[in-house]
Amino acid sequence: MTTASQTSLAGRVAVVTGASRGIGRATALALAKAGAHVVAVARTQGALEELDDAIRAVGSSATLVPLDLTDYDAIDRLGAGLHERWKRLDIVVGNAGILGNLTPLGHVTPKTWAQVMDINVTANWRLIRSFDPLLRASDAGRAIFVTSGAAQKCKAYWGPYSVSKAALDALVRTYAAETERTPIRAMLVNPGPLRTDMRRAAMPGEDPETLRTPEDLAPHIVRLADPAWTETGRIFDFPSDRLLTPRMAD
């Protein structure tokens, strides 16, 4: 799969979570360059303001939303605010996620397990719950969520993260099935190894210069956000540049 060279998202409204750094920041900036108004969600006000400066520099605009995604009532308030201002939402990119500890399952604390599930799974369900009416009000709602190969590989010591990403895959595929006959398209993106803080924490001995960057991935996410995109319920696998269909059984 190759990216469209001239994707236009002029006049479209896009929410990006985890927008202050890494994949989220690169995606927010790429969406802004394509013409979208970006609603940038992250916990860190200072980093959001730096993103806002970058978005303004490319001639676009943003709304900054400092928000902890475990504040689920705040997600509902955000949905209400989007409805009040725009009456619709064209794009949501659910990117925010946490790794948790790499440790045997028997050593994972209940607190760590809950934190990973709260951010990687429940927060994304709350986004869907809050934004579904807004996406349905768009002529081409696009729901895009960042998954991981860990959902399928299930390597030792990656338990909470792998389980949470497998649950996210099921969540988004279910939403895709429920909206198949609407203008909404729901997709998953597997970034693979990228030069991010999370990757550095997971693989501290790895040379980051051998990895591609979030900026390399971002144009592909922009294409999934385009009104012309037609696939739903599939995974865009960045390492192979392919669309994958998850295995299904009766």
CATH topology category name: Rossmann fold
The CATH class turns out to be Alpha Beta
Main sheet specs: 8 strands, mixed
Cα end-to-end separation:
29 Å
The percent of residues in helical segments reads 40-55%
Regions with little confidence, pLDDT below 50 for 5+ residues: none
The helix tally amounts to: 8
The CATH architecture term is 3-Layer(aba) Sandwich
**What percentage of amino acids are in beta strands?**
5-15%
Note the overall shape. globular
Return the structural class: alpha/beta
* Count of strand segments: 8
Provide the residue-averaged pLDDT. 93
Widest sheet: strand ordering: 3-2-1-4-5-6-7-8
The Rg value, from CA coordinates, equals 17 Å
Instruction: Give the SSE string.
Output: EHEHEHEHEHHEHHEE
CATH homologous superfamily placement = NAD(P)-binding Rossmann-like Domain
Q: Estimate nothing, just give the exact number of structural domains.
A: 1
GO molecular function: oxidoreductase activity
Pfam family, one: adh_short
Domain Ketoreductase: 12-197
Keywords: Oxidoreductase
Structural overview:
This is NAD(P)-dependent dehydrogenase, short-chain alcohol dehydrogenase family. Belongs to the short-chain dehydrogenases/reductases (SDR) family. One of its GO terms (cellular component) is membrane. InterPro entries: KR_dom, NAD(P)-bd_dom_sf, Sc_DH/Rdtase_CS, SDR_fam. Keywords: Oxidoreductase. Strand 4, helix 4 (110-137) and strand 5 form a beta-alpha-beta unit. This protein has one domain (13-242): 3-Layer(aba) Sandwich (Rossmann fold), CATH 3.40.50. It has helices spanning 22-33, 45-57, 72-86, 110-137, 150-153, 159-178, 197-202, 214-225; strands at 13-17, 37-42, 62-66, 91-94, 142-146, 185-190, 235-237, 242-244. The model has no long low-confidence stretch (mean pLDDT 93). With 250 residues, it is of the alpha/beta class. It has an eight-stranded mixed β-sheet with strand order 3-2-1-4-5-6-7-8, with helices on both faces. The two termini are 29 Å apart.
